[in-house]
Structure to design on (579 residues):
């Protein structure tokens, strides 16, 4: 019985060591496993070494056994630190409360001697490349800054800083850019022979000229611009303002005074952290905002997908609508324009339907649509939102559909305390308010799916990765990630979105593009922190859609005119450049 217990203890000890060294364990668990395994292992092996003799010889044998167990414990700890966790310890960084980063100097110095791969735009323009100095150090330069404003590319490129690490594409594709991935054997050879390490080159989907035009169109206003290729989901422009200058975070290793440069880099970093406009945030991908009336596009698709429930042509546009008779009238839905039904009737006649209330963005009409879709336990509005990847919080993924860069998910609501079961909440959500939080990328994806006949494509920024010998290491493949509407419904939405610009409020005409037929939807999103956010989504040309555009100006005011003018400029640039 005793022998069986010792065998069992030995097996448990080995299992604890294996688990403690596994990727699922933590440092605290490892120490607990190590001490537990030491006690169990000592119990298991002690009788094997125990001597029957008495006196100093037996005591010496016992002491030797204690030393063997102790040294075994130290050996396992060294194995854990120097082999299992060597990589994590080597590259570990610590950020304090002031944003200062402390890290191991060796990987920083080694990284300064790696010739990172070059980053190109879709047409081959060099966005970022490394220059090698006479002493074999290497540093990042940005040739695109000779032609365009480097800040227009900041949130896509990110930075490669010896002081503050990596961000953007420099971070997410670092393994390719340093050559660690895609040429493992060559990397091992370079390490063994002490040869300089060279990375692979990246070709992005963005077009530098369009990126600059979109940045210029924002005109210094805080906001976002996203342009997607309708057929593939490729990102042709991704701009956020304010931004930053990655050159000021880069150490020029060819300069004589590194200390002075480091001080300048630190000062610039601190200025970015203290800037209340948060220039380091990638707003197009990570900013979460109420979408306003652009979300009526999702509700409209839900109504057209389920016409027997939504009844798209049986609708009214009263000045106010009480979603829940048990709630005070002060919480009723109101239209932005008094007597809006009269304007609609003047353009469409008295028997108007979905196209009319969509073109004139009638809040009370879409509140009614939303309640119809959710009535009798159908939950059709919620299901339609999920098909466009706008999720209830309990079902939301950790990130958005963009995986080349960090992106945030879009949420149908925030609270899980029964909020979504309230008629007033459903009504508010249906016309784009309530607790909705979406990213500009999400609304661009909504437009893209409609323009693509119902097929929603995964957005991506990296077209391919190439070796220095121009061998393709990685090639992106367009990927369908959903079909939130049918082709017939998409064509009907073309009609409704065209009406917004051609027959809706006069301000929306600013989104028109001379020589092309385009469609869109404005949004004026109320928010509790200031003036409304100005939104606009646009697709075009409608006879053969190529681009989907989403723009958002924080606290920009009227979505129809402000958002429409911005979207129109960006769409015109996309159609002229035709990336």
């Amino acid at each position: 019985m005793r022998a069986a217990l010792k065998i069992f203890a030995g097996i448990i000890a080995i299992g604890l060591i294996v688990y403690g060294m596994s990727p699922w364990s933590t440092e605290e668990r490892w120490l607990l496993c190590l001490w537990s395994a030491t006690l169990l292992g000592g119990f298991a092996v002690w009788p094997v070494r125990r001597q029957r003799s008495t006196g100093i010889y037996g005591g010496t044998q016992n002491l030797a056994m204690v030393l063997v167990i102790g040294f075994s414990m130290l050996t396992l700890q060294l194995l854990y630190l120097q082999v299992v966790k060597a990589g994590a310890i080597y590259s570990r960084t610590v950020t304090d409360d002031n944003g200062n980063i402390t890290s191991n100097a060796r990987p920083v110095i080694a990284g300064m001697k790696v010739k990172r791969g070059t980053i190109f735009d879709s047409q081959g323009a060099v966005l970022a490349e490394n220059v090698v100095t006479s002493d074999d150090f290497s540093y990042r330069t940005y040739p695109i800054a000779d032609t365009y404003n480097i800040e227009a590319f900041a949130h896509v490129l990110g930075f490669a800083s010896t002081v503050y690490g990596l961000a953007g594409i420099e971070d997410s594709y670092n393994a390719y850019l340093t050559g660690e991935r895609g040429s493992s054997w060559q990397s091992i050879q370079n390490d063994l022979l002490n040869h300089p390490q060279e990375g692979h080159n990246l070709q992005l989907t963005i077009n530098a000229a369009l990126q600059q035009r979109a940045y210029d169109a924002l005109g210094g206003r805080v906001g976002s611009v996203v342009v997607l290729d309708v057929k593939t989901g490729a990102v042709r422009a991704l701009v956020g303002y304010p931004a930053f200058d990655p050159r000021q975070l880069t150490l020029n290793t060819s300069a004589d005074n590194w200390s002075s440069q480091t001080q300048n880099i630190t000062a610039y970093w601190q200025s970015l952290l203290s800037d209340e406009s948060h220039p380091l945030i990638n707003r197009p991908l990570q900013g979460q905002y109420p979408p306003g009336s652009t979300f009526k596009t999702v509700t409209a698709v839900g109504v057209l997908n389920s016409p027997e429930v939504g009844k798209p042509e049986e609708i009214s546009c009263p000045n106010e609508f009480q979603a829940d008779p048990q709630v005070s009238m002060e919480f009723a839905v109101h239209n932005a324009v008094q007597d809006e039904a009269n304007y609609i009737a003047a353009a469409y006649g008295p028997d108007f339907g979905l196209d009319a209330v969509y073109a004139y963005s009638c809040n009370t009409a879409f509140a009614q649509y939303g309640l119809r879709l959710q009535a009798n336990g159908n939950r059709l509005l919620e299901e339609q939102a999920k098909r466009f990847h706008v999720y209830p919080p309990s079902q939301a993924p950790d990130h958005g559909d963009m995986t080349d860069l960090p992106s945030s998910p879009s949420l149908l609501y925030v609270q899980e305390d029964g909020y979504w079961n309230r008629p007033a909440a459903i009504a508010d959500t249906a016309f784009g308010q309530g607790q909705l939080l979406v990213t500009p990328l999400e609304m661009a994806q909504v437009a893209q799916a409609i323009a693509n006949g119902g097929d929603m494509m995964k957005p991506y920024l990296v077209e391919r990765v190439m070796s220095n010998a121009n061998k393709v290491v990685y090639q992106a493949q367009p990927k369908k990630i959903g079909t939130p509407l049918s082709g017939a419904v998409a064509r009907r939405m073309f009609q409704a979105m065209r009406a917004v610009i051609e027959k809706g409020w006069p301000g929306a005409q600013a989104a028109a593009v001379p020589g092309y037929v385009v469609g869109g939807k404005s949004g004026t999103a109320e928010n509790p922190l200031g003036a409304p956010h100005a939104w606009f989504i646009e697709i075009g040309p409608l006879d053969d859609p190529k681009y989907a555009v989403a723009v958002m100006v924080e606290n920009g005011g009227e979505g129809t005119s402000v958002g429409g003018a911005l979207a129109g400029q960006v769409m015109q640039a996309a159609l002229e450049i035709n990336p």
